[in-house]
Amino acid sequence: MLQFGRPDLSTYEERLTLWAAPDFETAVEAAESEAHDHAGSIPGCVFIGLAQAYRLPECPGHGIEVFS
Fold this sequence. Notes:
Strand order of the largest sheet: 2-1-3
Helix content: 25-40%
Oligomer: single chain
Shape: elongated
Structural class: alpha+beta
Number of helices: 1
Strand content: 15-25%
């Protein structure tokens, strides 16, 4: 979860990224690292520490729903 602006008056962005990883821990570590890098590239943006994982029931393909 990314936060833009002041803590008392902020906009938040939730990003969904896909990671090929052997386990949840590795996937979350990759997501957190990328989120820190992404937030650092945007002025006034910080990663506030929320990263979650979900195992897809099948390999993602064209038009597959990955989050609802």
